[in-house]
Every structure is written in C-alpha cells, then in structure tokens.
Amino acid sequence: MRRADRLLRVIQILRRHRRPVTGQAMAEELEVSLRTLYRDIADLITDGVPIRGEAGIGYVLGEGYDLPPLMFTADELEAVMLGLRWVAKRGDKDLSRAALDSVAKIGTVLPERLRPFLFDAGLLVPPSYAFADSVDVSEFRRAIREQRKAAICYRDENAAETERTIWPIAIAYFDAQRLIVSWCELRRDFRSFRTDRMLKADVLRDRYPERRKVLLKRWMTLDSADHRRAQLDVLI
Asked: Which of 57-61, 125-129, 199-203 has the lowest mean pLDDT?
C-alpha cells in the first residue's frame, strides 16, 4: 500500500468510529507495525488533521473535519449494493423504495468504469418467506426518530389480545419478520413485538421521558444475553 493511500485509510478508520481507536487496532487493520502507525499519526497531525489522543489510549478525529469526496472502491460498491439489495427485499415498503432510489442516485455520480461494480455486482440476496406486516412499519421508524410513544393492539402466540403503550427504540429486521424493540408500559420492562401480530398501531403525540440512546444502551447491556435473546424471541 502506498503511504498516501495508507494515510487516507487512517483518516477513514477514525471517521468510522465515534469512540477512540487504539493504535494497535489501526495497525492490525492496516497490516503495518505500531511504530509505522504512530509515525503516520504524527505526520497527519503535522499536516493539520485534528487528531486527538495519545499512544496507549486511542485516537479520535476532531469534529468538523472531513475529506473531499472520495470515489468508491470496487469492494465498497459491492458492499453498498449487497446491503441495498437486502434492504430492498427485507425492508418495509418505504424503506425498500428508498433502497432502490439510493442505487439510482449512486449510479448517477459513478464514472462509467465503476458502474458495473454497482449494477452488475455478483452478490445476491436469496428470496425468503416473510410474514406480512399488519401495520405500517415506516410509522415506527418515525416514532423512533422523534422518540414518541406508540399505542398498539397486540395478539400474542396464544391469540390473547392486549392494548399496550410502548416506547419504540429500535427495529430488528430478520429474514421472515420484523420486531419492534420497545419499553412496554404494561410490563414495565423491555419487550419486542412482531409487526405481523399487531392488530393496530398509532404513533402518539407524547414523547417518552428518557433518551432513546440511553434506553437502547440499557437494553443492550441487560444482565444476561439469554434475557435479551428471550426478548427477541418475543416471549411476552
């Protein structure tokens, strides 16, 4: 790898992470020695790149700094296309349409020599049977963005129906179904609800009182992985 390319990769690694990245992690990804990595960091700082941190702790890229637009590599285009194809097949109606629109937008800015890596990528998403959503999942995505509560009528696996007020914090997209990860006011705990089992869903004007990121972090750090797995298995 040319040194100039390596320096751009260092910046790209830092752009990819919100938290400090250790020199060791970057050196391993770039397949260079730690000494070379530290020298590259020092050179970037000398050139005015706002990298903060120190050896043994980690490095972050200062806010407000960005590179001029860079062209995609072949691997990046194939990764983008694979992801967009998956969303087009597995996402809700609006998300699927957005994925197709994204492909078209990316294709218009690519040079001719790179377009085959996008439109003719040999990476396929196989078809699968999916349970039909009985509610508009895009409304839950809006509720998550705006941190609003939702009122749902839910039928569980035993056909018992309950009215619930939930705080949607994330959506899990599986091959066959979608789950709304939420705080449930009825159970006073985290629960996950299958969209195909919802009989009705309305986004409310009320915002939930805690920040979504805080709730999501709490859900991700539950006492045991089995507990979280049980939530995703919809044992409610």
From this structure: 125-129
Per the DSSP assignment, residues forming a β-bridge with 52 are: 60
Q: Locate the domains of the chain by residue range.
A: 3-61, 74-119, 137-232
What is the band of 67 on the pLDDT scale with cuts at 50, 70, 90?
low
Quick one: CATH architecture of 3-61? Orthogonal Bundle (1.10)
3-class SS shares of the chain: helix, strand, coil, % to 5: 45, 20, 30
Distance CA 93, CA 57 (A): 44
Alpha helices in 17-73, H assignment, sequence order: 23-30, 34-46
H helices present in the chain, as ranges: 3-16, 23-30, 34-46, 74-90, 93-109, 115-119, 137-146, 212-220, 225-232
| Residue 177 identity (one-letter amino acid) | Q
Look up the pTM and report it: 0.68
Q: How is residue 193 written in tokens?
A: 């609800």
Specify whether domain 137-232 bears CATH 2.30.30: yes
Is residue 103 within 8 Å of residue 84, measured between CB atoms?
Answer: yes
Q: Do domains 3-61 and 137-232 have the same CATH topology?
A: no
Say if CB 157 and CB 117 are below 8 A apart.
Answer: no
Nearest residue to 137 via CA among 116, 124, 119, 152: 152
Terminal CA-to-CA distance of the chain, rounded, Å?
53
Is 184:166 a contact under the CB 8 Å cutoff? yes
Q: What gap in Å lies between CA 200 and CA 226, rounded to an integer?
A: 29
Q: Are strands 189-194 and 58-61 parallel, antiparallel or unpaired?
A: unpaired
